[in-house]
Write a structure and sequence with these properties.
The structure is a homodimer.
Chain A: H1 4-15, E1 19-23, H2 32-35, H3 42-58, E2 66-70, H4 71-75, H5 78-94, E3 98-105, H6 109-119, E4 122-125, E5 128-131, E6 137-140, H7 146-159, E7 162-168, H8 175-178, H9 188-200, E8 212-216, H10 221-230, E9 236-244, E10 248-254
Parallel strand pairs in A: 1-2, 2-3, 3-6, 6-7, 7-8, 8-9
Antiparallel strand pairs in A: 1-10, 4-5, 9-10
Chain lengths: ~260, ~260
């Protein structure tokens, strides 16, 4: 059966580009010529960030198949920032991009289910099931285990959505926990990789890739090889691979 | 020097109550008599949840020192839900409660800094430093290590705020990662406990407790004892200790 990953792969092939553009809204990085059109209060700031972020999308949507919106940079502008988040999701979707909410959520079962409803699933509004932020992918933190991840997987199955689970992250201190060796000599991140592989087993599409994918930092190339073996059916979202620019960071999704 | 934990301890002593009330906004749990006053659309739903949640606070703020607001249940109502989150934070603060944002955030350094600005620190709005959601505590996920946690700790220091870091969570599958034994025979959650202890060292108040605290599930009492030894300066937020009710869940903070 065709799944989200098949559609993503199709898009990557059509564009001949496995890049994800990361749009981080930070007011200080908006050019003066945009800023000066708006007031300096929170409403003007968000309008300036909206205009600039839309311009970034306009300049890239026909060459880059997917966009990653980092929630933190929107949350730090409060309620207006979340409004902007929603507007940017809708704008990217109107340009037919695959949209990833980089939210790194995760909690105990019923609460994870709330997060999943927010980003991937639906919630009951006005007595009807309604999508809320309605993205294609969300990122998920695995520290709490299966019953944290399962509600997301349920919605992946139900609505053909996807998740990228943190396996080995690209930051300097990622090794403090992720590289710890367990009793059998295998590192924690590999244990997580095995979990990701089992979580994704039932959601594999016609190209052989599951809607359950992995975040794997490119700062550690040797690990990429090992992890590919442990997760043969998972796409990798690879921060740090490709150019990192001031306003928009590039990520890569690779088979 | 007096810190946030000293103020929390003072409040716990004055109320003779170490309980945290958890307010989870779920529309289906709002009584009919409240619901019927409002429309069924998202605005009416949020107004009904606001009225009921305020009533829960009105009934408890003079006997319970702290409130925990679970972000997932607000996010699942989208932008209006976040507006409600902000309103509830402000209402709880107006009642002089200690407010915890249960957001379980965490990311690489610069992005964690965005999250910390949103909940604990300040962001530049209208050319002035301004608090955004402005709670006392946020919960943090440690999977990405020190450079994920440090921006939060910086704001804890700067603004006398606090964090509760997930150490051993109360859910069934928490052991899948957290209980894995490392090469030296010690479990991952104990390694995290050691990190929490070191992260909190410089933020200890006059009662001997750090603004860097730990989430430890009460479902595993033996572990509580071991963790107390590893984190002598951390308060514990203990989900599952005390009554769990339909609408409001109780948590306990214990020395």
């Amino acid at each position: 059966m065709e799944n989200l990953m098949d559609r993503l792969i199709e898009k990557i092939k059509a564009y001949n580009n496995p890049t994800v553009i990361g749009v981080d809204t930070r007011y200080e990085l908006v050019p003066e010529c945009v800023k000066e059109k708006y007031s300096k209060d929170i409403y003007g700031m968000c309008n300036a960030m909206l205009e600039y972020s839309k311009a970034l999308i306009d300049a890239t949507y026909d060459i880059i198949p997917a966009v990653k919106l980092q929630s933190a940079y929107f949350e730090m502008y409060g309620v207006e920032g979340i409004k902007l988040y929603k507007e940017m999701i809708e704008y990217c979707k109107s340009k037919d991009m695959i949209v990833m909410a980089d939210v790194k959520r995760g909690d105990i079962g019923s609460t994870s289910s709330g997060y999943s409803k927010a980003y991937l699933g639906k919630n009951l509004i006005n007595e009807k099931e309604e999508a809320i932020f309605d993205v294609d992918f969300a990122t998920v933190n695995p520290y709490m285990g299966s019953d944290c991840v399962n509600p997301f997987i349920e919605d992946c199955r139900k609505y053909d959505k996807g998740i990228f689970i943190l396996v080995k992250t690209s930051n300097k201190s990622s090794g403090e926990l992720q590289d710890l060796k367990t009793e059998d000599g295998e590192e924690i991140y590999k244990k997580v990789a095995r979990l990701v592989n089992s979580w994704g087993e039932e959601l594999i599409g016609k190209n052989g890739y599951s809607n359950v994918s992995a975040v794997v930092g490119a700062t550690y190339p040797k690990q990429l090889e090992e992890l590919r073996k442990l997760m043969p059916h998972s796409y990798f979202l690879i921060p740090g691979y490709g150019a990192q620019r001031r306003k928009s960071r590039r990520y890569s999704i690779r088979i």
